[in-house]
Write a structure and sequence with these properties.
Protein name: Acetylxylan esterase
Number of strands: 13
Largest sheet: 9 strands, mixed
Structural class: alpha/beta
Helix content: 25-40%
Strand order of the largest sheet: 3-4-5-9-6-10-11-12-13
GO molecular function: carboxylic ester hydrolase activity
Organism: Larkinella rosea
CATH class: Alpha Beta
Radius of gyration: 20 Å
InterPro entries: AB_hydrolase_fold (IPR029058), GCE-like_dom (IPR054579)
Keywords: Hydrolase, Serine esterase, Signal
Mean pLDDT: 94
CATH topology: Rossmann fold
């Protein structure tokens, strides 16, 4: 049993080193499927109509979108791509084992909270860490981050509980070893008057094919099931479901303004926060970093990773509804695409953050997805890309749009400089 080698593709990686690796290690054949990196070979395609109801009639108002067209598309995404997830469990409960401790030389108040998903408190639980700026005396906005590592590995704070993570061979281990990347600069959020929270994704559902045996999805299997039905949740929906349970806690904390919570995640967790924000409209803002195929990128563009690659049973089919794989060899019949995910966030703010050499994730496909979804944002009078010309790396001209887009110079990562832009975006929209 082998974990996906994702930890080398995340935050704070050296830009120069990663760019070199990106060029040298570009796969040309994955799961027996060729990979295209040439713009002249992406093929022709027609995207599914956003502003047209299933019966063919046009959508002309924001009200029509909200009341009828959005539910039509949401149902398709749920049943085909990510899978249906259960509601809030009746047995959900919280334990603030660290209810408020000064941190960062008094700049922050730190909280650590265990969220119990089931009545059995020995398993199926996640720990959240929350930092609130101590200088702010009223309820504060917050960025909720979902991470590939335990929060004690992410943040330099000796008061943090040492978490448990999943190893590459599918075993639990104490998160007491350094990781290949740097620490999160929490103080940049505090200085902006914004709180910061984080959760380790593996505490919700392990990230490997057999992870369902230990994850939250197992508890919802029917007596006759050994795995979810074809239209039921994959691991991405499980992670999104866990983020909704974090929101359930935020609504109980009087020091947090639960109406002003943003989500951020990278790579497969960029897909997870996008789906979480779509499904749970209590989240006000989403920052989907390098979400790629199955996220904001257009699947109909044959560039980099494809639905066939990502849903191959030997790779990541467990992350999606099984139905999704049935479109691997007939992508032009898929009734949704990445622009649908982007549009389903409307009218709430969404920032797509990508990298110029992240060819596998197709940064241009994410830009074109935003262009295609822009008319939905404009229905609500919100700003969105008005050009079909892709901005150059480090160009911030589209960054602060309600539907924003920013591409750094480099690969599949979230760089320290990206966080500067993300904080500016959050200050505007939170």
């Amino acid at each position: 049993m082998k974990r996906p080698l994702l930890l080398t593709l995340f935050m704070m990686v050296s830009l120069a080193t990663f760019a070199q690796q990106q060029t040298a290690n570009r796969p040309t054949l994955v799961a027996g499927i060729p990979v295209n990196y040439q713009e002249d070979s992406v093929g022709s395609y027609v995207l599914p109509e956003l502003l047209k109801f299933a019966d063919g009639k046009p959508v002309t108002t924001a009200k029509q979108w909200t009341q009828k067209r959005r539910p039509e598309l949401l149902k398709l995404v749920e049943e085909i791509q990510f899978g249906k997830m259960p509601d809030r469990p009746k047995s959900l409960k919280f334990n603030a084992f660290d209810p408020g401790t000064p941190a960062f030389n008094g700049k922050a108040i730190r909280k650590q909270v265990t969220v119990y998903f089931t009545g059995d408190t020995s398993d199926h639980k996640m720990d959240l860490v929350i930092y609130l700026p101590s200088a702010v005396k009223k309820p504060v906005p917050l960025l909720m981050n979902i991470s590939f590592v335990a929060y004690n590995q992410l943040i330099d704070d000796p008061g943090l509980r040492v978490g448990t993570i999943w190893t590459r061979d599918g075993k639990r281990a104490k998160a007491d070893k350094p990781t290949p990347f740097g620490k999160m600069n929490v103080e940049q959020f505090l200085d902006a008057g914004i709180g910061f929270a984080s959760v380790y994704y593996g505490s919700i559902e392990p990230d490997f094919k057999e992870g369902i045996r230990d994850g939250i999805r197992k508890t919802y299997l029917k007596a006759s099931q050994t795995e979810p039905a074809n239209d039921e949740w994959g691991a991405i929906s499980a992670w999104a479901w866990g983020l909704s349970r974090a929101m359930d806690y935020f609504e109980t904390d009087k020091q947090i303004d639960s109406k002003r919570i943003a989500l951020q995640g990278a790579s497969r967790l960029g897909k997870a926060v996008l789906w979480a924000g779509i499904h749970d409209t209590r989240y006000k803002v989403v920052v989907a970093s390098i979400s790629g195929e199955g996220g904001a990128a257009l699947s109909r563009r044959n560039f980099g990773e494809t639905v066939g690659h990502i849903t191959d049973p030997s790779r990541y089919l467990y992350q999606f509804a099984t139905n999704y794989h049935s479109y691997a060899d007939k992508i032009n019949t898929l009734p949704i695409d990445g622009h649908v995910l982007v549009a389903l966030m409307a009218p709430r703010p969404l920032l797509l953050q990508t990298g110029s050499t992240d060819y596998w994730s197709d940064p241009k496909g994410e830009f074109l997805s935003a262009v295609a979804a822009a008319p939905v944002y404009r229905l609500f009078g919100e700003t969105a890309p008005e050009t079909t010309v892709m901005p150059a790396a480090e160009d911030t001209s589209l960054l602060m749009n309600h539907l924003g887009y920013f591409m750094h110079e480099g690969g599949h990562s979230v760089l320290p400089t990206d966080w500067t832009h993300i904080v500016a975006y959050l200050k505007k929209y939170l």
